[in-house]
Write a structure and sequence with these properties.
Elements: E1 5-7, H1 12-21, E2 25-28, H2 34-39, E3 47-50, E4 60-62, E5 66-70, H3 75-80, H4 82-87, H5 89-95, H6 101-106, H7 109-115, H8 122-128, E6 132-135, E7 139-141, H9 142-145, E8 146-148, E9 151-152, E10 160-166, E11 170-177, E12 184-192, E13 198-203, E14 211-212, H10 214-222, H11 226-230, H12 247-265
Parallel strand pairs: 1-3, 2-3
Antiparallel strand pairs: 4-5, 5-10, 6-7, 6-10, 8-9, 11-12, 12-13, 13-14
């Protein structure tokens, strides 16, 4: 690991000032990606600014029609929160599938979304539930937030403050995970929103990261059932292909996980 200067600001304003004053600063959320890459000398920030204790980024609030989660909220906190379990049980369930206990107690929702790993779980829920990401500068709709592999609409120095998920009529998440890393080889979040719209977010399978499975959405709009998904052909174009599975294998996994998610939603 290269030499770096560690900062723990008291609020977002101080964090922004520290970021602006450093030659190459990085924000630290949960540290589940940044710290390992620093240890391998793949990242060498001059300054690391820790956001985990900032009060502006903490907490979970449930209103009549939405769940808002602070960016520094850990996966374990989302998984264990009774209000989330009642409002969007699929979201609490998803959080409990991330990594192992150590990762879940350190990793944060904001850090996961800002990193946008192509196999991360939360992006599928953000896309399927049509969530809104609030930063210290603006609000970004789910459709505009994810821009590619490890890439988002966030500008340099921009910090995720919270994520707001509309409460759906019904939703579920299923994933086929790599047994070693627990990252999703294919994770599918299905949701029927209260206005009747059907959205399906897929993570882990595509080379560009999270995407909406529009063909599955159309099938489920006509009939909300696993049998409707069975009739859909999922293209292997653009799917990841590596030692863990071919593009065709992952395309089939998307279909299988979608069927399981719809069945779980029932």
């Amino acid at each position: 690991m290269y030499e770096t200067t560690y900062h723990r600001p008291k609020d977002l304003a101080e964090a922004a000032k520290l970021f602006a004053g450093a030659s190459e600063a990085r924000y630290l959320a949960g540290g589940q990606t940044l710290l390992p890459t620093m240890k391998q000398r793949l990242a060498a920030p001059t300054d690391v600014i820790d956001l985990r204790k900032l009060p502006e980024l903490k907490g979970i609030a449930v209103t009549g029609d939405a769940v808002t989660i602070g960016a520094a909220t850990t996966h374990a906190e989302v998984n264990a929160n009774d209000a989330v379990k009642k409002a969007i049980p699929a979201l609490a369930y998803l959080a409990g599938l991330i990594g192992d206990p150590a990762v879940r107690h350190m990793g944060t929702i904001g850090g996961s979304l800002a990193n946008n790993d192509p196999a991360a779980d939360y992006p599928a829920a953000v896309m399927a539930l049509n969530a809104t990401i609030k930063t210290d500068k603006r609000t970004i709709p789910a459709e505009d937030f994810f821009t590619g592999l490890f890439s988002t609409a966030l500008e340099p120095g921009e910090v995720i403050v919270s994520v707001t998920f509309p409460i759906p009529a019904v939703a579920a998440y299923q994933k086929f995970d790599n047994p070693a890393s627990r990252y999703a080889m294919a994770g599918v979040f299905v949701a029927k929103l209260k206005d009747g719209a059907v959205r399906v977010g897929v993570t882990g399978a595509h080379g560009d990261g999270v995407f909406r499975a529009t063909d599955i959405e159309k099938a489920l709009t006509g009939s909300w059932s696993p049998d409707a998904v069975q009739a859909v052909t999922v293209s292997a174009d653009g799917m990841l292909s590596d030692i863990h599975g071919s593009a065709a294998y992952r395309a089939n996994l998307v279909k299988v996980m979608a069927k399981r998610a719809v069945a779980a939603a029932h």
